[in-house]
Amino acid sequence: MTGEGGGWRTLGSWPSPDGPCLRLHLSGAATDGRGLQLGTGAVPYRGNGIYTLSDVADQDGWLSYDYDPASPVPTMGGSVWPFPAAGLHPGPQDQRPLVGRSDGLLFLSPPLERDMEVLGPVGVHLVAALNTPDTDFAARLFDVTPEGPWRLIQDGIQRARFRCGWGTGTRNERLLEPGQPFTLDIDMWAAGHRFARGHRIGLHISSSNFPKYARNLNTGGHPLWEDAFREASPRIRMGASHLRLTLAE
Asked: How confident is the model at residue 52 (pLDDT cuts 50, 70, 90)?
């Protein structure tokens, strides 16, 4: 288990059937930024553009962002092969450069009042709408430490056209009807991480994590042969969308 005070854990089975599930809802309320350290020089957060992860679904409405395939959100750490020429550096890299981008949504929990151990499957459930027939939804989970680094724990991605599952040919493909809400789940595999007291849980939602994952060009064309692209403006519904964490017993 990673994180402060982590180490090895022994389970009778994986995942543990007794591990409780915590849902943290995406909220449009601005995060209380006291104590946040952003970027070079430890610049304090001023309260603009960072939203809240809440244990209650007390917010409704929609938040949106714009995704341009010509300028995707770059991969920063994670489970990648070392390839510096492509900007790929594995491990728990600092995710604070995401704060300076407008092509995603950033959510932070309040500072934790006690230690929290996440041990098991992790995922994100989204209620979304889109102006294009397809796009990707990429999620990153990270640990926001009081001293500054926002260390990546896990990431995942889901192509909207395959939100109903994979299959041979086009059997399971479901292109989107622009403007119509739909549900989608991002499988972030699993995590074993200890969030220490005073830390925050961070979640970033965007439509790219490149070059770890190939860009979606948003047209609904063939994933391999399409060469034209469109800009997308995904919308995410607050309250109904949430982060799922499996906690240690």
From this structure: very high
CA distance 52 to 153: 19
pTM attached to this predicted model: 0.94
| Distance between first and last Cα of the chain | 14
245 near 188, Cβ under 8 Å?
A: no
8 A C-beta contact, residue 249 and residue 126: no
DSSP, residue by residue, the chain: -BSTT------SSSS-TT--EEEEEEEEEEP--TT-EETTTTEEP-SSSEEEEESS----SEEE--B-TTSPPBP-SBS---BGGGTB--BS-B-GGGGG-SSEEEEEPPPPSS-EEEEEEEEEEEEEE-SSS--EEEEEEEEE-TTS-EEEEEEEEEEGGGTT---STTTT-----TT--EEEEEEEEEEEEEEPTT-EEEEEEES--BTTSPPP-SS-S-TTT------B--EEETTT-EEEEEEP-
148-188 pLDDT, tens digit per residue, is: 899 999 999 999 999 998 765 556 789 999 999 999 999 99
Question: What's the burial of 225, exposed, middle or buried (CB within 10 Å: 0-12/13-18/19+)?
Answer: exposed
CB neighbour burial string for 121-152, b if at least 16 within 10 angstroms, e if fewer: bbbbbbbbbbbbbbbbbbbbbbbbbeeebbbb
